[in-house]
Specification:
Strands 2-1-3 form a 3-stranded antiparallel β-sheet, with no helix packed on it. It has a single domain, classed as Rubrerythrin, domain 2 (Single Sheet), CATH 2.20.28. It is elongated. The chain has 2 helices and 3 strands; from the N terminus they run αββαβ. It starts with 5 loop residues before the first helix and ends with a strand. With 54 residues, it is α+β, with helices and mostly antiparallel strands. Bound molecules: zinc ion.
Length: 54
C-alpha cells in the first residue's frame, strides 16, 4: 500500500488475528489474545498473531 492512513489501518487491522497453524482469521481484542484466553476455532491452537505482521 502506498498511502498510510493510520486511522483506516487501525480500523482494518486492530482487532484481527490469524492463527499461526491453520491461517484462520478471527476478530477479537488484543487484550484477550495476550491473556491467552482465545483459541482458534478451527484447530484449537492459541498461537495467534496479528494480521499486520508478516
Ligand atoms: Zn487454527
Amino acid at each position: 500500500m502506498a498511502t498510510k492512513i493510520p486511522v483506516a489501518q487501525a480500523r482494518l487491522f486492530a482487532n484481527r488475528f490469524v492463527c499461526k497453524k491453520c491461517g484462520h482469521k478471527m476478530r477479537t481484542q488484543a487484550t484477550r489474545i495476550l491473556s491467552g484466553k482465545i483459541r482458534c476455532r478451527k484447530c484449537n491452537s492459541n498461537a495467534l498473531r496479528s494480521i499486520r505482521r508478516k
